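SEQUENCE-TO-STRUCTURE ENTRY
===========================
What this section holds: a protein sequence and its matching fold, both as plain text.
Question of interest: how does this chain fold, as expressed in backbone structure tokens?
***
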Amino acid sequence: MDDLENLNRQIAAHWLGRLDADQEAYLDYTSVCLGQLTHSAPEMTRLLDCLKQEDLSALLVAKLNRRYLKFARLAANEALAGKLDMLVRLGITLEQAELLRNLTDEEIDRLAFGWGGPIVQFAAQAFRRGVALHAQAGKHHATAFVAARVAGTRGERA
């Protein structure tokens, strides 16, 4: 779970910059990924076919993308063994999981460096709402985030 918390911190910090104490506390309560992979497996496959291994200047974004993709690939491998919990937490479809499970480290790097921006979209509005609540309500909000993420964070912009 520490890996998911660290991934959430990196995603939030990418969009918000330095996190304050309330934001850090909210991240401790959140049991799902605050970033959501919004691109289909065919979209990622098409891009992967077009990309060459290049050193792009957006190193921080590439590192975020790589971290997310590797974490998602681990979750996809666990799903193959019947453990779907992390797929639900990450909001990944079975089709996306199948693609991710089969990616090599080189392919993950090509996607991470070649995507042209973050590969996940930050649920900024839901995050800000949760942070604004007092601690106990924030805990409940973060716990309920998994139920609301499907309906409330698709297409949300920071």
